[in-house]
């Protein structure tokens, strides 16, 4: 266990950040974990290796999200210690930020599924506004340190900087697992009360957006504040579902998915609570996970439409095909309440190497239904938290300024 200092904010996605300031907002560059610009990049990994690792990460994350969305949390306040055992590490994008005065540069993970209790405050067990915490993760990562308020600084592409004072974060002194090797901590973009989004609140008009580029392409954009707003005839919106006991997550109502003109409705015989009828939109999960019953019907419709013999692909990917230029793909449209999202092929079939492509949808055996990052590529997506809406606009994210 190392004893170096690491910083934790309460939100998740992997970003390498450069920030431009425009009006009442600012934007950051998001770097995919498998990009050559990322510290996680391994040049020896083949595309099939990266996709298989992505599948494993997605399964682990979906299991985490299910536990976070259904567990009853309890914190141990003995000796001023705050314990959490259900934090989620979403590892698709990374971010550089600076902490303190003078600023110290650190690399952090960014995620829209936040660690819920990392910054639980109990004044009767804290001294001088400093509290101790312990956070552990199911993959073996862990961190022990102090909670504090500090100034975050984002470097600006125009030479200026953006300073965010009095932001609650965790300063980790003892780190275990991969966190010690690659990054200095976590940043939370979820809806929990101590996430960065919630702490900024009215300063960013409770709005943010992002535009994810195709895998391993140029950097994606994450925008805070009024600049996140989108306009145009191609913009559609769907209600953002609030679940008071699970503010961390952003829920949408999925009505179904069409393959050409055949509609596959959302259905799950496993639904036992209201939350089971919704889907979490999450940029930290690579693949999209659907109820088993719905997935089986969707897979059947896709097989009929493609009419090519499937092959075995990487572990964790259920439907794969040999790819050649003559292969025809169906039209696939995701139907949220009041919003029909027509996907491009790259949103629902991904190359995995050796001229093989695999479906980016998968069945959920863990009860968590998730709209993942591959389904969101080349869409500008705005979260308007006060309006309780999520907006979608088809966009070439490689050209988004």
Top keywords for this entry?
401 residues; mainly beta; 16-stranded mixed sheet; 4-stranded antiparallel sheet; 5 helices; 38% strand; globular; disordered N terminus
The unreliable regions are 1-22, 71-90, 115-125
Number of helical segments? Answer: 5
Q: Summarize the amount of helix as a percent range.
A: 10-25%
User: What value does the average pLDDT take?
Assistant: 74
How would you describe the overall organization of this protein?
It is a single chain. This protein is mainly β and 401 residues long. It has five helices and 28 strands. The chain has a 16-stranded mixed β-sheet that branches. Strand 21 and strand 22 form a beta hairpin. The protein is globular and about 65 Å long. It starts with 5 loop residues before the first strand and ends in a 7-residue tail after the last strand. The N terminus is likely disordered.
């Amino acid at each position: 266990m190392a004893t170096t200092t690491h910083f934790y904010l309460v939100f998740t996605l992997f970003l390498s950040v450069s920030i431009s300031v425009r009006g009442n907002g600012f934007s950051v560059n998001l770097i995919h974990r498998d990009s050559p610009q990322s510290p996680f990049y391994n040049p020896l990994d083949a595309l099939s290796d990266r996709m298989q690792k992505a599948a494993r990460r997605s399964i682990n994350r979906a299991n985490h999200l299910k536990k976070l969305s259904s567990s009853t949390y309890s914190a141990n306040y003995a000796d001023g210690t705050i314990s959490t055992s259900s934090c989620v590490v979403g590892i698709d994008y990374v971010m550089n930020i600076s902490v303190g005065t003078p600023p110290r540069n650190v690399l952090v993970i960014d995620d829209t599924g936040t660690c819920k209790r990392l910054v639980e405050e109990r004044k009767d067990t804290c001294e001088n506004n400093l509290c101790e915490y312990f956070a552990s993760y199911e993959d073996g990562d862990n961190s022990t340190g102090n909670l504090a308020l500090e100034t975050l600084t984002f470097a600006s592409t125009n030479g200026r900087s953006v300073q965010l004072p009095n932001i609650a974060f965790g300063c980790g002194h003892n780190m275990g697992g991969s966190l010690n090797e690659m990054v200095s901590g976590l940043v939370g973009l979820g809806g929990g009360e101590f996430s960065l989004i919630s702490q900024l609140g009215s300063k960013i008009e409770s709005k943010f957006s992002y535009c994810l580029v195709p895998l391993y392409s140029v950097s994606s954009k994450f925008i805070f504040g009024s600049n996140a707003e989108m306009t145009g005839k191609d913009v559609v919106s769907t209600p953002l579902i609030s679940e008071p006991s699970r503010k961390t997550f952003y829920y949408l109502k999925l009505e179904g998915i069409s393959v050409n003109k055949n509609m596959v409705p959302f259905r799950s015989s496993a639904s036992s609570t209201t939350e089971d009828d919704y889907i979490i939109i999450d940029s930290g999960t690579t693949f999209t996970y659907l109820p088993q019953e719905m997935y089986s019907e969707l897979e059947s419709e896709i097989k009929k439409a493609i009419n090519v013999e499937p092959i075995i692909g990487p572990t964790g990917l259920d439907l794969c095909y040999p790819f050649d230029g003559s292969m025809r793909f169906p039209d696939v449209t995701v139907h949220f309440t009041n919003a029909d999202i027509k996907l491009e092929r790259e949103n629902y079939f991904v190359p995995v190497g050796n001229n093989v492509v695999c479906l980016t949808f998968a069945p959920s055996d863990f009860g968590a239904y998730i709209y993942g990052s591959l389904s969101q590529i080349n869409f500008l997506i705005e979260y308007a938290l006060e309006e309780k809406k999520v907006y979608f606009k088809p966009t070439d994210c490689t050209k988004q300024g």
